[in-house]
């Protein structure tokens, strides 16, 4: 089954509308969607390494714009949409603590949590809005953090593309398990911090 999913992602990654899917997923993940854009970015770069920088730029722009929506959810729509998203991840108890920490160390928190793929970026963007972080600082930090993350992933895949593809294909179950553990671990880390 994993091989089938991997092959499907690789075929979508090489599809003529793949860039639009990447834009959509990167935008949505920064504000409400649970799946990170890496699930498309990685196979897209592996399928067409010459477009690595273009795909990283697309993911960055869409993620920052989606982050602006996340900020809006936190600052204006928290009582409705924001609380629903936070409760979906069972983080209600940590919300007040996170806001207090964010008010003291917003840029540091964004730099660390925005780079780590296991921490959902939507939680960072919503909390930034809830803490009323300066919007310009939020946008500039988002650009720096998301660009660093996506260009680093794209750069590694561009440089080591074929060996990375072979490694992923040979150890698909291991790679998938590691990603799943990382994703669940990220949610647990956010929940218990």
Automatic annotation (TrEMBL):
Transmembrane segments: 20-41, 53-78, 114-132, 138-160, 172-190
Domain VTT per the UniProt entry, residue ranges: 36-156
One Pfam family named in its UniProt record: VTT_dom
UniProt entry keywords in alphabetical sequence: Membrane, Transmembrane, Transmembrane helix
Entry's Gene Ontology cellular component terms: plasma membrane
Coiled coil (UniProt feature): none
Protein name: SNARE associated golgi protein
